[in-house]
Design goal:
Outer membrane porin, OprD family, 3 helices, transport, 446 residues, OM_porin_bac, 2 domains, two-stranded antiparallel ribbon, 7% helix, 18-stranded antiparallel beta barrel, 52% strand, single chain, mainly beta
């Protein structure tokens, strides 16, 4: 992640007069059509969640006692295809450049069933089945002055305090205004206001019911190896969220380096949100416990040695509850221990991670890579009062075709085994194995 520290801002602005002497992106514009691009991105996803220890997908209740007496299926299994069309125009020439972006997001159900549905790949019909096809179209108008771009409309955003998720077939989209400025070399400033968030399975502008989210951020590269960032968000009726990051890379020798990555979130909850959720609990509707704040941070150290990388990470959550996200985008969890299934973000949770990566290019197989990691978390505060514990093991392998007609076609296999004790199973999820096969093929038409 790119990053910044406020104490360096004054120095960066002082140096800005010399940076502005160089040509800006707008001054080098070739035109609306000449700089345009049109891409087609195809993704096929098979996803299976196999519930363990007697748990299942759809509960069968006793008609008299309403107790769960079994499950329709002990697993969820679905396959789908996503097709994204993305057109990005260039900017018109002149002091103020004008352009447009447009996209079409379509999903096609290849395999699913009422008893196997709900992996988040498809919307749900009135009969409880996955929707056969879905299509969402959107666009945005954009303006550029020098190296500053203002965009309004439907867009994809990757900010630590508002990040659209792309972990299934189609990505989330957000509607609003976003300003990004790169006038000073190494410094990026951003600000935005968003009033709608469409889920990965929704075609409405705001099916996730985001009233408004105001965000600001800054990132700065102090040197080629040291960077920092600070961001803040105010999500109406939910919370105010603050994020910071420091990243330092220490070269040791040829093909050897140490990297340190620190991330932290501070969330202050809106009083009306807490009172509303607490009132729901009083009426027998599950909600959140009365709470006011959360702080969660993670620190990862990675040692790279040629084709090998070894990572050790620690993450700590504290405050009145665990770290929350989602209404501000399903990808708003830029933490080192956020992995395939769990984010290890429970209330008061402490977690460790060990990870190993291998790039086979050094062994004569470019495009092939492997990753495995193990995480364990404990000291989690649960609703029962007993200590919660969890652990997860991940394995991934990916191959990207390097040349020929199928260049950039990739195959990725992901597998996770997640287990927790009874106290955390009751609050979070039943034990499960999560397997995903992802095939992606990007095509650059223009």
């Amino acid at each position: 992640m790119q990053v910044m520290k406020w104490s360096a801002l004054a120095l960066a602005v002082t140096a800005g007069t010399t940076q502005l002497a160089f040509a800006s992106a707008q001054s080098e514009s070739k035109g609306f059509v000449e700089d345009s691009s049109f891409d087609i991105f195809n993704r096929a996803l098979y996803m299976n969640r196999d519930f363990r220890n007697g748990a299942g997908n759809i509960a069968i209740e006793d008609p008299v006692t309403e107790e769960v007496i079994g499950y329709k299926n002990g697993y969820r299994e679905e396959t789908g295809l996503g097709i994204r069309l993305l057109f990005e125009s260039g900017f018109t020439q002149g002091t103020v450049g004008v352009g447009v972006d447009a996209h079409s997001l379509s999903s096609i159900k290849l395999d699913s069933g009422r008893g196997r549905h709900s992996n988040g790949l498809f919307d749900t019909t009135d009969e409880g089945r996955g929707d056969d096809t879905q299509t969402e179209v959107g666009g945005a108008i954009k303006f550029r002055i020098s190296d500053t771009v203002l965009k309004y409309g439907n867009q994809f955003v990757a900010s630590p305090v508002l990040s659209t998720d792309d972990s299934r077939i189609l990505p989330e989209t957000v509607t609003g205004t976003y300003l990004v400025s790169n006038e000073i070399e190494g410094l990026e400033l951003s600000a935005g206001r968003f009033t709608g968030l469409s889920s990965q399975v929704g075609t409405e502008r705001d099916d996730l019911e985001l009233k408004s989210a105001n965000i600001v951020g800054a990132s700065y590269a102090f040197t080629d190896n040291f960077s920092g960032a600070i961001h803040a968000a105010d999500v109406e009726d939910y919370w105010k969220k603050y994020y910071g990051n420091l990243n330092y890379n220490l070269p040791l020798a040829e093909e050897q380096a140490l990297n340190f990555d620190f991330n932290i979130y501070k969330t202050d909850y809106d009083k009306s949100y807490i009172e509303s959720a607490t009132a729901d609990e009083d009426n027998g509707i599950p909600g959140v416990r009365e709470s006011r704040d959360n702080t969660i941070w993670s620190l990862a150290t990675a040692y790279s040695l040629g084709a090998h990388k070894f990572t050790l990470a620690y993450q700590r959550s504290s405050g009145d509850r665990g770290y929350d996200y989602g209404v501000d985008g399903g990808g708003t969890v830029w933490l080192n221990n956020s992995v395939q299934f769990s984010d290890f973000n429970g209330e008061d949770e402490k977690s460790w991670q060990v990870r190993y990566d291998l790039d086979m290019a050094s062994y004569g197989v470019p495009g092939l890579s492997f990753m495995t990691r193990y995480l364990t978390g404990d000291d989690i505060t649960t609703s029962s009062g007993e200590e919660g514990k969890e652990h997860e093991w991940n394995f991934e392998t990916k191959y990207v075709i390097q040349e020929g007609a199928a260049k950039d076609l990739s195959f990725r296999l992901r597998h996770a085994i997640w287990r927790a004790n009874d106290a955390y199973n009751a609050d979070y999820a039943p034990d499960l194995n999560d397997t995903r096969l992802i095939v992606e093929y990007p095509l650059d038409v223009l």
